[in-house]
Amino acid sequence: MMSTRRDLYLLMLTYSNHKDHLNTDDLARFLETEQKMTKVTKEHCLEIINKFEPCSENQKEEVLGIDGITNYTRSPAGDIFNPEHYEVNQDMKQPLCNYFIASSHNTYLMGDQLMSQSRDGEPIVHHGYTLTSKILFKDVIETINKYAFVKNE
């Protein structure tokens, strides 16, 4: 048995004008607005209903209930991830250190994640809300280079 997701239920109510199902017009609006699909046709909506709606009565009435919506959004067809991005087209044969800076977390922020401006200058290493100070990334790397490979005796 599938549990009802509150967020999907509220979306269904929003797009169906407080009914317990989406008709093809409602579903098309949902797909265009929430899933960012373009040129959604009635035929495409009917395909979704026939494939994902478990209730045969709803299928006959050409509507998608909450279980059908849930089935659709949990399927690859309802995934908002762009399928073109499943394949990597960048050079991934380099050592991790060649990618590390670009993959680091929040180095572009000057303050908190929500309200701050980002910067275009040198990266700053900072761990928010701790007793550490901000330091230029360049200084961190120079210090690591100076001490990381010194042999302790």
Write the layout of secondary structure elements.
Layout: H1 6-16, E1 21-22, H2 24-33, H3 42-52, H4 56-61, E2 64-65, H5 66-74, H6 100-103, E3 124-125, E4 135-136, H7 137-147
Antiparallel strand pairs: 1-2, 3-4
Domain Phosphatidylinositol-specific phospholipase C X: 90-153
GO molecular function, one term: phosphatidylinositol-4,5-bisphosphate phospholipase C activity
Organism: Liparis tanakae (Tanaka's snailfish)
Structure report:
This protein has two domains: 6-82, EF-hand (Recoverin, domain 1, Orthogonal Bundle); 96-147, no CATH class. α2 packs across α3 (42-52). The N and C termini lie far apart (63 Å). The chain has helices spanning 6-16, 24-33, 42-52, 56-61, 66-74, 100-103, 137-147; strands at 21-22, 64-65, 124-125, 135-136. Strands 1-2 form a two-stranded antiparallel ribbon. Strands 3-4 form a two-stranded antiparallel sheet. The mean pLDDT is 84. The longest helix has 11 residues, at 6-16. By secondary structure, the chain is mainly alpha-helical. The protein is 41% helix and 5% strand. The chain is elongated and about 80 Å long. Its main location: cytoplasm. Pfam families: EF-hand_like, PI-PLC-X. Residues 90-153 form the Phosphatidylinositol-specific phospholipase C X domain. GO terms for molecular function: phosphatidylinositol-4,5-bisphosphate phospholipase C activity. InterPro entries: EF-hand-dom_pair, PI-PLC_fam, PLC-like_Pdiesterase_TIM-brl, PLC_EF-hand-like, PLipase_C_PInositol-sp_X_dom.
